[in-house]
Amino acid sequence: MLNMATEDTINAIEQRLQDIETEDDLIAKHKKERRDMQAQIQKMKNAVPKGDKKKKKESTDQIAKLEAELDARQEEENDHFSRRTLKKEKEPNIVKEKITEDLENADSDDTQEPGVQNQGKKSKAQKRREKKQAKDKEREVRIKEQESENKLGPRQQEMAKIKAILKQRGLALFEVRPGSI
Fold this sequence. Notes:
With 181 residues, the protein is an all-alpha fold. It is built from 6 helices and no strands. The chain has helices spanning 2-16, 23-47, 53-90, 92-110, 124-150, 154-168. The chain is elongated and about 95 Å long. The termini are far apart. The relative contact order is 0.05. Residues 29-157 are annotated as: Disordered.
C-alpha cells in the first residue's frame, strides 16, 4: 500500500515536471507558484471581517497550511528534478553533448568581457548595470581625450609660462582648494 502511494506521488511529480527541462525553468515555475499563492493569501486576508477573531485564526491556519504544502511540494520537485538530471548525465551521449556545448560556450565567452557570463536572458537590472558600465567607460575615454587635447590648449601654455617665470624668480605656485585653510 505504501509503495503504491509513493508511486502515485512520483507519477504526480513527473506529471508536473513534464514540461520542465532546465533548473531555471523549475525556479521560474516555483516563483510563479509562490506569486499565485501570495495573491490567494491576500484575497483570504481581505475576505476576513475586521473584528472576527475566529475567522482570522482560521484563515491564518489555512494560510500556514497552504505555505507548508507549497514548500513541501516544491522541495519534492527539486529533489526529483535533481535525481532526474543526475540520471540523464550518466548517459554517455548527453555527457558528450554537454562537453561540446561547454567548448562552444568557452569560445563565445572569450569574446565577452571578463566577469560577464553568458546566461541567456538577462534581467532588467543586469542590462541597466551593463549599460551604465558602458557609459562610464565611454565617459572616461572622452575625459582622457579631452585632457590630452587640453595639454596643448592656451590655458596650459599660459600656466607653463607663468611657472617658468616663477621658477626664474625662485617662487612656486600652490593650488588652494576651496574650504581648506
